[in-house]
From TrEMBL:
Localization, UniProt: Endomembrane system; Membrane
Membrane topology listed for this record: Single-pass membrane protein; Single-pass type II membrane protein
Family per similarity comment: Belongs to the methyltransferase superfamily.
UniProt GO cellular component terms: endomembrane system; membrane
UniProt protein name: Methyltransferase type 11 domain-containing protein
UniProt keyword annotations, A-Z: Glycoprotein, Methyltransferase, Signal-anchor, Transferase, Transmembrane
Organism: Populus trichocarpa (Western balsam poplar)
GO MF annotations, alphabetized: methyltransferase activity
Length: 314
């Protein structure tokens, strides 16, 4: 059993450790703990926990959680004020990285209650509590804003503007980490919105390109878009997104527009279509619309370009 003076002294020492971890959240990259400091803070928690299991253990857990909330409320949330576009995503990435570093040290200091007390009270670990706090107080509250910014950046790049691809890639990794910690499919949510907007965008583009250019011009644009979307997915999207993205693009630019493309070619040739061209288009259409076809969309486009009626541009 600790004397009141000893207990107060230990709590003051522990407060020094907590305050030092907060400097990590404030962006102080030089913060580090020596072996002696780590052992001192760890020993304080162990002694407090051992001296009065129930009373001090509850206090230690409450102090751990309070330290997380204090850092989030005093550092993380204010950092998002007035941040827009890529700056908001960069701030999220930085705050999440600093937060993980801070909680890593706190979990080390509070290891005694993490092993012998917390699982019996919360049925989880201190690391789980840390992740849930960041999710509930930060990510959950700002997710829609993070999603809107990410979608906006993708759309900007699609229109030819330069964007911060690195931040976009890293923020998607944060979304996937949140999924891992909470079970909520945050990345799948933004992926669904992105695919829907991509579909709407290329639906409009297909109509414009077909109305204002030749079939050869149209096919060349489709080629270019497929290449650009594949590169876009490679740069900053998780690997499973690329097939879904290309499928949406092909659906709007190829499969949905096929009949209109053929009809436009008929009109250009006064209604005359050679038997070869008719047979080739029919075969391509049937094969590309089926899953597992031996013809790819690229082969279909190539056949279209090299056919007797649509000549490739020089």
């Amino acid at each position: 059993m600790l004397e009141p003076e000893e207990e107060r002294a230990m709590k003051m020492v522990l407060e020094d450790g907590i305050m030092k971890t907060k400097k990590i959240m404030e962006g102080n990259q030089e913060v580090n703990f020596t072996i002696e400091e780590y052992q001192r803070f760890h020993q304080c928690v162990f002694d407090l926990h051992s001296a009065s299991y129930r009373n001090n253990s509850h206090w230690l857990l409450e102090r751990f959680v309070k330290s997380l909330e204090e850092s989030i409320n005093s550092v993380v949330l204010p950092s998002f004020v007035d941040k827009r576009d890529a700056l908001l995503l960069r701030e999220l990435i930085l705050m999440w990285s600093n937060y993980k570093m801070m909680t890593k040290w706190l979990c080390k200091f509070f290891e005694s209650i993490d092993r012998h007390f917390v699982p019996n009270i919360c049925y989880c670990s201190l690391n789980d509590i840390s992740n849930n706090n960041f999710h509930d107080l930060v990510f959950k509250e700002f997710y829609v804003k993070f999603q809107d910014v990410a979608i906006s950046l993708i759309n900007q790049e699609r229109m030819g503007l330069h964007i911060d691809c690195s931040s976009l890639k890293n923020v998607f990794l944060v979304f996937m980490e949140m999924h891992k910690h909470t079970g909520i499919a945050y990345y799948e949510g933004i992926e669904s919105v992105m695919l829907e907007e991509t579909s709407n965008y290329y639906c409009q583009m297909a109509q414009q390109w077909l109305s204002h250019g030749s079939p050869a011009d149209y096919v060349q644009k489709v080629y270019r878009c497929l290449e650009q979307e594949a590169e876009r997915a490679d740069r900053y999207m998780p690997s499973g997104t690329q097939p879904k993205l290309l499928k949406v693009v092909k659906q709007q630019l190829v499969y949905e527009i096929l009949d209109k493309l053929v009809e436009k070619k008929r009109l250009e040739n006064c209604g005359l279509v050679t038997d070869f061209y008719q047979e080739m288009l029919s075969k391509c259409a049937n094969m590309t619309l089926q899953e597992g076809s031996s013809w790819t969309t690229e082969e279909w486009l190539s056949a279209l370009l090299t056919s007797s009626l649509i000549c490739p541009l020089s």
